[in-house]
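USER: Fancy drafting a protein?

ASSISTANT:
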Amino acid sequence: MSAEQLIALIVFALIGSFTPGPNNAIAAATGANHGFAAALPHILGVPFGFATMLLAAAGGVAALIVASPALAATLKWLGIAYLLWLAWSLARASDGGSGTGPFALPLAFWQSALFQYLNPKAWMLAVATAAAWLAGDDPWRRAAIACLTFALASAASVAVWAAAGAALRGWLAHGRRLRAFNLVMGGLLAATALWMGAA
């Protein structure tokens, strides 16, 4: 991988990681409802889960998804259904905002890692990365570089969003502000899911 390709990959990883999406919304909601420390498993689980997706992409899974519209559609709609369920759970949460069920906030490390496989944005990034940077000589070395790049970018992004949410905790503790915040975050997650469904 040339220096120019590496710079392009870093820029792509930073933009893909820091722009709003499900991982960042979950991080902000976790920070706001439970504090920054509660978001640490999510901060570590997201890069780990996405790295395994990139390795799978390097092994040919991305090509399989691109070649199979039915598989791509199944992954997309499972992810959208999960996001809508999470949005509904978060919007209905009152104080604490944890919701209910196996993916109640805050997410554990393994839940955050597995969530990447239901995250439509993560699949779009993984497929685009595989197509643009994993093809060519020494694909496993390229995959290792891409995994490290995205791990650092996604961990930094999720940490920043969690810190932003945690910074609001004191302000949200008054009156019904936390309830309103959870409604807004749930609405944003639902809007993200619907936008991905229309794409």
In short: The two ends are 31 Å apart (CA to CA). Residues 139-167 form the longest helix (29 residues).
